[in-house]
Design brief:
By secondary structure, the chain is mainly alpha-helical. Helix content is 65%, strand content 4%. It has 12 helices and 2 strands. It has a two-stranded antiparallel sheet. Helix 4 packs parallel to helix 7, helix 6 runs parallel beside helix 9 and helix 10 packs across helix 11.
């Protein structure tokens, strides 16, 4: 039942109107300095991230799929920007380290989708994403996980800071064995 609920949520959040509904109507919010700005509702995004703490890895994997859907390129990527403020990058990296293929692969996929926001790579690198992805590429054999880890690694390596992190964590050594992988997607 929870899996079906998560699938439904992922379908809704993948659409612009679903994201608008989760964001709610911007309302005046007061910043720390006393000025007012337009603020959105974080309630749903906090709940989606909280689901990553569930004990059942299948629930966590499905919650990651919901979060990945939140990163679809709608509404000027406001959902992704909100999730970054809520520390989604650290959450994704922690789930990349989980030894469950569904959780690890879904976390790599959510991270990769979040990296579509240009500035997000800084937060991913701060969360030591390249180190986690390099480890996955070195030890994992599941094609889904390898494909998603390689995709996120490529997006991080696009930037100079990502390349430097790749050099530091010896990402080349982890990726090289997969160059001739029998699965073309890897």
């Amino acid at each position: 039942p929870i899996s079906n609920a998560c699938k439904a949520l992922a379908c809704i959040m993948a659409e612009a109107e679903g994201q608008k509904a989760a964001l709610g109507t911007p309302s005046p919010a007061t910043k720390a300095d006393g000025t007012t700005c337009q603020g959105y509702n974080y309630y749903y995004f906090e709940k989606f991230l909280a689901a990553l703490d569930d004990e059942d890895p299948l629930v966590v994997a499905e919650a990651l799929k919901v979060l990945e859907a939140c990163h679809m390129q709608h509404n000027d990527l406001v959902c992704t920007k909100h999730l970054i403020k809520l520390n989604c990058m650290t959450a994704y990296v922690s789930k990349i380290k989980v030894k469950h293929e569904g959780v690890c692969g879904s976390a790599c996929s959510a991270l990769s989708r979040a990296l579509d926001v240009k500035e997000s790579f800084v937060f991913a690198l701060d969360a030591v994403a390249m180190e986690a992805l390099t480890h996955v590429m070195a030890v994992e054999t599941d094609p889904f996980v390898l494909t998603k880890a390689a995709e996120a690694t490529a997006k991080l390596a696009f930037y100079g800071a990502g390349k430097r992190a790749g050099f530091k964590h010896r990402t080349l050594s982890a990726v090289l064995p997969h160059i001739q992988d029998e699965n073309a997607a890897v």
